[in-house]
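Late entry, written up from scratch paper. The run itself happened at the end of the previous shift, but nothing got recorded in the book at the time, so transcribing now.
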Amino acid sequence: MIIKFIYNKIKDKKCWHRYNKFIKENKTVWGISRRIKQIITIKQVDFVMNVKGIINAYNKVFKISPPIIRGYIVTTPFSMINDNEKFKENESVIFYSIYTPNPSVVLAHEIFHIYFEKYTKRKIPNYNETKEYFTVIMNDIFGKEVSGGYPKHQKIREKILKVWQKTHSIDECIKIIKK
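Output as recorded:
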């Protein structure tokens, strides 16, 4: 699967609005202070990424069909998925931040969120934060630390990883959150 990332000024502004709203409401990003202003303006840029290996790995974990993924390049400090709007079963968007140094790791992280979103249909307690807890599973899938997580999430991530390593069942891991 190939994802083409394009720049769209309207999508970039929308992403900044979402980011600033999150910071205003929470003061930090789950323990990481990131109050910055836009310093880069993009006129035109695009790139493609082959994510077939990532998709194949997640198909084994979630056992669901992969959604269509569109990509946009943004100037926000973080990459993110479009999960602040109405849930779409077969389509998702990745907003890829130009500040992210390792595209394959970032895309693995964001695509994990997409699969988690589709698998849970967001019907899980505290979905926005919970999707971040579960990226700890990526470390086991890829055999190295690709997701360090946020400071405030470390204890729950440890619990999820222990259950995952024991069962390799996403459903067993979700039970931890539903308790």
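Strands lie at 2-7, 46-50, 68-74, 80-81, 91-97.
(Scratch paper discarded after transcription.)
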